[in-house]
Amino acid sequence: MIKIKKIKIYHLEYPLKNFVISSFGLMKSRPALLIEVKDFNNNVGLGEIWCNFPSDGPAYKFNLFKNIFINKLIDININDPIHVYKIFNSIKTIFVQSDDLGSYNSILSAINCAIWDLFSKNKKKPLNKFINTKSSNDINTYASGINSNDAINTIKKARISGFNSFKVKIGLNNNLDLKLIAKIFKSKLPNEKIMLDVNQGWENKNALSYLIKIKKHPIYWLEEPISALSKNQVYLKLINSSPVNIALGENIYEEDTFDLLIKNKNLNFLQPDITKYGGISLPIKYMNTKNINKVFLHFLGSGVGLMTSAHVMSAINANGLLETDFNVNPLRDLIFKEPLKIIGGKIKLNSKPGIGFTLNKNTIHKYLKNQFVK
To answer: What is the CATH number of domain 129-348?
Structure first.
């Protein structure tokens, strides 16, 4: 059991020179909402609230956390990380009434991750070993956030950096996409994997015909071809009929949907984001099931969420691939006192308790937009 005595939240932002382009808009900066949760043993747990879009979202979620969530955590005894969902169940109705369950889910996910970090630190174990004593000490990654307008050049740079798996954003112009995909696979090396991310950019009525057009290429997976709001039966029909492996899951907001997808025999890649919905507690519920090797965690944020995701991936699916943004982002690489390094396409986990890192306050000071302590 742990008891919380102090909580901090930081709103950070790094302006981008080269914008990240997706089918639904431009990302002009890299934000981060980080929480520090300290218990009465003076251990500190770290969590990250998903806040990439829209640009006003981080400030809004910062205020929600400060004004609504913090007071319910201070001086509370927590017996298990999943207990945080019971603690906050009483205020869930507010977010249902305001049609804002997304903010509720992402804030709770960060709290859940921070509490897991705290529990593992109190047990003096790395987070991955706390979850699964047989965990691997490293995890393979793939380079993500690759814009279609400079994909070939970016893949070359990522290859030089040691990556051999790459995910390219498509879905802006289907005719140009077909030409780009052909170029990508022409330059692909034999040991490499190529993934494509549509970011919900296709209409369902056209999706299968697009998939048929690109099936000749050895695409490792194609991500979120249609709207995440599509009814389950619509998505399942596309998954079951697609000649290309479909991947999805970063926009799941119901555990029943997660359960349905992980059990589907034709879906090989399920991508929950532990900073967005369910925290760590959701995927590890399935850790001892035969389908856990389908879980390839989605992540695109700071080093806190990345390292938390790396620990979870190493514990539940050591042979999987973890998403790693290849764009310049000091909130990822320099957020810890010890610089985060990806060597040979792998993240190596250290043997320190929890996620194994402490925040670099110099980086926080440099990119700080707001903070609150209680």
So the answer is: 3.20.20.120
| pLDDT above 80 (res 262) | yes
Tokens 């903070």 correspond to 371
Does residue 295 surpass a pLDDT of 90? yes
The pLDDT value recorded for residue 212 is: 98
Q: Domain coordinates of the chain in residue numbers?
A: 2-124+361-373, 129-348
Q: Which H or E element spans position 60?
A: helix 57-64
DSSP letter at 271 equals -
Cα(106)–Cα(58) distance, integer angstroms: 11
CATH topology match: 2-124+361-373 vs 129-348: no
d(CA 34, CA 10): 5
Do 348 and 164 touch, CB atoms closer than 8 A?
no
Q: What SS3 state is found at 134?
A: coil
Residue 201: which pLDDT band, with cuts at 50, 70 and 90?
Answer: very high
221: β partners: 195
Q: How many CB atoms lie within 10 A of CB 319?
A: 9
Q: What are phi and psi of 271, to 5 degrees?
A: -125, 65
The DSSP annotation for 204-259 comes to HHHHHHHHHHHTTS--SEEE--S-TTS-HHHHHHHHHH-SS-EEE-TT---HHHHH
Element (H, E) at 140: strand 138-146
In the numeric block, the tokens 């169940």 are attached to: 89
In angstroms, the CA 220 to CA 205 distance is 23
d(CA 49, CA 71): 17
Q: List all residues 6 or more positions away from 152 whose beta carbon is below 8 Å from its beta carbon.
A: 183, 184, 187
Separation of CA 99 from chain center: 23
Class of domain 2-124+361-373: alpha beta
Q: What's the confidence (pLDDT) of residue 26?
A: 81
Q: Is the pTM of this model over 0.70?
A: yes
Q: What is the mean pLDDT of the chain?
A: 96
Separation of alpha carbons 346 and 367, rounded Å: 27
Residue 255, CA distances (Å) to 84, 94, 278, 282, 286 in order: 16, 20, 8, 8, 12
